[in-house]
């Protein structure tokens, strides 16, 4: 430590040279490790998933989307938190937030499934979608769709919900998952008393 307090004279001291070299190597390695960790963190925090509420309005305050049993058309609004280029992604319903660790957390198609998905801003050949055999949809962009921070991927999905359920709508891009709570409830019937 005395080598550091006596800079720049200690640079010529042979005892201090090794210490300063080791310190320099540690600083350089630390820089690259932190840079890599930061890049991984930003990749995992690139999007936020919301639902549209008609006329391009986004309900950012709702922590859960609730629908009745039946078929629904919903606009999923996926906001980029930084500039991204989306080449492929996946939308599906999952039972928990640990989808990466538990790949069997997909919800059975007999409970709820996405039966159609389309991008509201792009059409073929720039955008295509297909069933992923797990009740979700694979989304493909060719060429990659560029979104700057604050821009939305606007995906219209048609959902068939066959029974009560609570879980998540999951958006996956580059092996990172982003979710929004989702709930299916029984149809509410109002009976009038005469």
Characteristic terms for this protein:
single chain, 194 residues, alpha+beta, six-stranded mixed sheet, five-stranded antiparallel sheet, 11 strands, elongated
Sheet-strand content, in percent, reads over 45%
> Biggest sheet: strands, sense, closure?
6 strands, mixed
Average pLDDT over all residues: 81
Helix percent reads 10-25%
State the shape: elongated
Subunit arrangement of the protein: single chain
Number of helices: 2
List the helices and strands and how they pair.
Layout: H1 2-5, H2 14-44, E1 47-52, E2 58-59, E3 64-68, E4 70-80, E5 84-94, E6 112-119, E7 127-131, E8 137-147, E9 152-161, E10 165-173, E11 176-185
Parallel strand pairs: 3-11
Antiparallel strand pairs: 1-2, 1-4, 4-9, 5-8, 5-10, 6-9, 7-8, 10-11
Summarize the structure.
This protein has 194 residues and is an alpha+beta fold.
What does the model show?
This protein is α+β, with helices and mostly antiparallel strands and 194 residues long. 18% of the residues lie in helices and 45% in strands. The strands form two sheets. The protein has a six-stranded mixed beta sheet, with no helix packed on it. A hairpin with a 2-residue loop joins strand 10 and strand 11. It is elongated, with a radius of gyration of 25 Å.
